[in-house]
């Protein structure tokens, strides 16, 4: 009886490992590790695979002044056809890439979240559409830093 139970548990564990392999690839698709580990914007763009061009089809909303940098609201809406991912990057943070979102086909490319902002700087919305990267930026003044300051 013990051997059967062990065998079944081994089969379940093996199946779980096999099932997790595509999840790792999916996680890298949504969260490119090199971009999230980057310590400046140029390295973020490199990690995402291309440089970003400015676009007026991206609507980025951030407060003019954030009283607490630990919880700065950010909203991004993309009118770029074929939007597949939206990223949020904060220029002066120790790790500038703060968030990444996969946008399923057929849904409205809109995200709203809160991010930490170390100091007064430009917050960027990066939109990936049809294999290209687009950006829009907006300066937000921070009175109390959110990354340990």
Assess the beta-strand content as a share of residues: 35-45%
The first-level CATH class is given as Mainly Beta
Main pleated-sheet profile: 6 strands, mixed
**Could you please say which CATH topology applies here?**
Immunoglobulin-like
Shape: extended
Structural domains: how many:
1
Distance between the termini: 60 Å
CATH superfamily descriptor: SoxY domain
Would you tell me the structural class of the helices and strands? alpha+beta
Description of the molecule:
This protein has 149 residues and is an alpha+beta fold. The chain has a single domain, classed as SoxY domain (Immunoglobulin-like, Sandwich), CATH 2.60.40.2470. The chain contains three helices and nine strands. The chain has helices at 2-30, 33-37, 41-48; strands at 52-54, 58-61, 65-66, 72-78, 83-90, 97-102, 110-115, 121-129, 132-142. Strands 1, 3, 5, 6, 8 and 9 form a six-stranded mixed sheet that branches. The protein has a three-stranded antiparallel sheet with strand order 2-4-7, with no helix packed on it. A hairpin with a 2-residue loop joins strand 8 (121-129) and strand 9 (132-142). The protein starts with a helix and ends in a 7-residue tail after the last strand.
């Amino acid at each position: 009886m013990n051997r059967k139970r062990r065998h079944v548990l081994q089969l379940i564990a093996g199946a779980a490992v096999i099932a997790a392999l595509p999840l790792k690839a999916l996680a890298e698709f949504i969260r490119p590790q090199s971009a999230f580990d980057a310590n400046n914007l140029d390295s973020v763009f490199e990690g995402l695979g291309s440089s970003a061009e400015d676009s007026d089809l991206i609507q980025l909303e951030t407060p003019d002044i954030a009283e607490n940098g630990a919880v700065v609201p950010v909203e991004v809406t993309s009118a770029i056809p074929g939007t597949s991912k939206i990223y949020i990057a904060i220029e002066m943070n120790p790790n500038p890439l703060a968030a990444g979102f996969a946008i399923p086909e057929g849904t409205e490319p809109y995200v709203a979240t809160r991010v930490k902002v170390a100091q007064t700087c430009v917050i960027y919305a990066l939109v990936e559409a049809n294999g290209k990267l687009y950006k829009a930026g907006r300066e937000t003044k921070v009175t109390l830093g959110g990354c340990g300051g």
